[in-house]
Amino acid sequence: MSEPCELSALEARERIGRKQLSPVELAESCIARIEAVDHAVNAVVARDFDRARVAARAAEQAVMRGEALGLLHGLPFAVKDLEDVGGLRTTYGSPLFRDHVPSADERSVAALRAAGGIVLGKTNTPEWGAGANTRNAVYGATGNPFDPMKSAAGSSGGSAAALACSMVPLATGSDMGGSLRNPAAFCGIVGFRPSPGLVPSEKRVLGYSPLAVLGPMARSVADLRLMLAAMAGDDGRDPLAATAHGLPMRRAEAFIRPRPVDLAGLRVALTPDFGIAPTERHIAEIFAEKTGLFRHLFAAAEEATPDCAGTDEAFGVLRAVSFLAAHLGRVRATPDLVGPNVHANVEEGLRYSAEDVARAEALQTEIYRRWQGFFTRYDLILTPAITISPRPWTELFPAEIDGHPTKTYFHWLALAYAVSLVGHPAISLPVGRDRNGMPFGLQIVGPRGGDALVLAAAAALEAALAGDARTARPVPDLSRLRTATPLRTAPGFLGFGG
């Protein structure tokens, strides 16, 4: 018999509304799961159990009084440690903020609480989200639930690992170079990068840059849509949040129950590499095998890719500039307390001229327009979500793939950042395992503003693949994790990894 923490968010919320599940029972089940297995993966790094219990009792009382209940009423969730939670230690993975406790929630967290969600704790992240290997000098490394000595990817690695282990039904994440999608792929859960501005953020230093977004993570598309409905909105502090003065721009129902899509009516493009990504041969072969099992479901499924020439250059410059804007002061004032990835980005940003930045922005626009032409012929693009199978977290980043050197510490994320650069929505959907027994993630990329289409197509494909062991969402061996040696005892656990 499954435990309450293993219920989907949607099922748990429905049971709470029908008085068949107590929010207290659900919170205690999640807390027990964290205490039973988190030592093996180090996903939930700051815990808020006492306040969560108080909130759960209040949620239970509201149900019993027959009050109107929010979308997420009584559902526990975890928050990536890049997002402020009032009264809870929030470090951003940086020793400079080791003891930092914000006074208030940031907008994304406040929105989830306002919908009835209950914060259980913070999830691990690399320092300032720099890199796709979740480890830092405050909390150490996060292990993959399918093999704790392998990477959970990042930068939302703690959230992905917590979800895979059913520690929480929902968790927050953020994404610049794939930080919602990469860990989802490595850990066998669902991560969605929404269109910039759909989930407002008041904290981006470069408010007009579309590269960094906030988004939801869950174990199923339906759960993810429920969470997105609470996160989406408008906020004047985010210049990219679409608005029409005095008019509501977004309705929660559009995300919870989008119009169903018939896969047989969609034309999809299949590409293992966008023509630029250093995709591991193994992953390209797995992608071909997996898509071979379901490509017949679409009206057409053709090998094709948008022209992504210049993507590495444009993303590299614009990424470095964003880190320069956010972290130059810290690197200059306290260089010994800043890790190698942040150092590398800031130092790179300092080397660029105004001419370099202008060229990168113009190139970004040119690539974006090429993508728009491509989407006149196709409805969706399918790719692997990430270029490699999970490797040990002791490797800061893959210096080579199939014997070929990578260009930068983030070059291996090109399948994800090619999408980030042009601002299109994309989801990572778990589709069975690879030949190493690790989860395989399929990236589904939609047209400009096509968030609802991506979510509906992902839901339809998820349902079609669930009954086949070759394509169903994999689940980690929890009995093995319960008896595993604490990850903190592993050599090299604590530190930046540089």
Structure, described:
The protein has 498 residues and is of the alpha+beta class. The chain has one domain: Amidase signature (AS) enzymes (Alpha-Beta Complex). It contains 15 helices and 17 strands. The strands form four sheets. It has an eleven-stranded mixed beta sheet, with helices on both faces. Strands 4-5 form a two-stranded antiparallel sheet. A two-stranded antiparallel ribbon has the order 6-7. Helix 5 runs parallel beside helix 6. The chain is globular, with a radius of gyration of 21 Å. The N and C termini lie far apart (44 Å). The mean pLDDT is 96.
Secondary structure: number of strands: 17
Q: How are strands sequenced across the largest beta sheet?
A: 1-3-2-8-10-9-16-17-13-11-12
Which CATH class applies here?
Alpha Beta
Radius of gyration, CA atoms, in whole angstroms = 21 Å
Whole-Å distance between the termini? 44 Å
Helical fraction equals 25-40%
- Overall shape: it is globular
CATH architecture annotation: Alpha-Beta Complex
State the CATH topology: Amidase signature (AS) enzymes
How many individual helices?
15
Sheet with the most strands, sense and barrel status: 11 strands, mixed
Number of domains: 1
CATH superfamily: Amidase signature (AS) domain
Coarse structural class: alpha+beta
Question: Strand content of the residues, in percent?
Answer: 5-15%
Average pLDDT level: 96
- The low-confidence parts are none
